[in-house]
Write a structure and sequence with these properties.
alpha+beta; TATA-Binding Protein; 8-stranded mixed beta sheet; 8 strands
């Protein structure tokens, strides 16, 4: 037996209270950070408040219904960051993860929950990593100016916007740090713990998160450098203005005498 798993990131936090009101479907589990729906037998939809929604064995019609029910205007599934996996249920096999194939020896709501949680984390990391890489590319442009011209052509307002983007991204990631921990569901169940561990390792969750934080630190260091250069430039201009004013005052004194 095989199922498809599809994950999307909607680019913003999801209001779970509103989503629950809008969705007419059997709610299997709920906590402050997620909703898990059993759509049909062996078919699930999982909504995580940090902006991810994951489907297992759900038709496009069901997926579109859930996405529309999130209350996010102009949402288009084909424009969202996404990841897709195959789930194979084989009672003769052991738990195994191989690229986009997840093999389990049984399937129920708890197993679906662990799979969807890890995929939700993965698609969130993909979304935030792309935003981070965009900031890195922007900074490379200014670093090239510094290397070739010995100065950076960026105004203080533009610099403040770039700093604002970076700090906003860091805050979003920090706000969702808890998502990368081991779920309580897997604490007391050896099979679920093994599945969670294998998924976490294969999807490279911890290393990707570490790399994301590392890249943000590099961006912050670069922005601090640019900020110092701009402040130095403004200080130099102010010094020249003061010198010119003093020279004008001295000149006026000589003219009067």
């Amino acid at each position: 037996m095989k199922f498809k798993a599809n994950a999307y990131h909607v680019e913003k936090k999801i209001n779970l209270i509103n989503a629950r009101v809008n969705i007419d479907c059997a709610l299997s589990k709920k906590e402050h950070s997620f909703l898990l729906y059993e759509v049909n037998e062996n078919a699930y939809a999982y909504i995580k408040d940090f902006g991810a929604i994951v489907f297992i064995n759900c038709s496009d019609k069901v997926q579109d219904y859930f996405l529309k029910s999130l209350g996010i205007p102009n949402i288009r599934k084909n424009k969202l960051e996404s990841e897709n996996f195959n789930i194979k249920i084989d009672i003769q096999s052991k738990i195994d993860i191989d690229f986009d194939l997840i093999v389990v020896d049984q399937f129920n709501s708890n197993i679906a929950h662990i799979i969807m949680l890890n995929i939700a984390q993965s698609v969130a990391l993909r979304f935030y990593s792309k935003l981070t890489y965009k900031l890195i590319e922007d900074n490379k442009y200014y670093l090239s100016q510094l290397e070739n011209l010995g100065r950076v052509k960026i105004g203080s307002r533009e610099m403040k916007k770039v700093i604002g983007k970076t700090m906003n991204l860091r805050h979003k990631i920090a706000e969702n740090l808890y998502i990368f921990g081991t779920p309580e569901l897997a604490w007391n169940d050896e099979a679920l713990s093994l599945l969670d561990s294998k998924l976490n390792k294969e999807l490279d969750i911890k290393d990707r998160h570490f790399g994301l934080q590392h890249n943000l630190n590099i961006i912050q260091e670069t922005l601090d450098l640019f900020k110092d250069l701009i402040q130095h430039k403004h200080s130099s201009i102010l010094e020249w203005v003061i010198i010119l004013l003093i020279l004008l005052e001295v000149a006026q004194v000589f003219i009067k005498n």
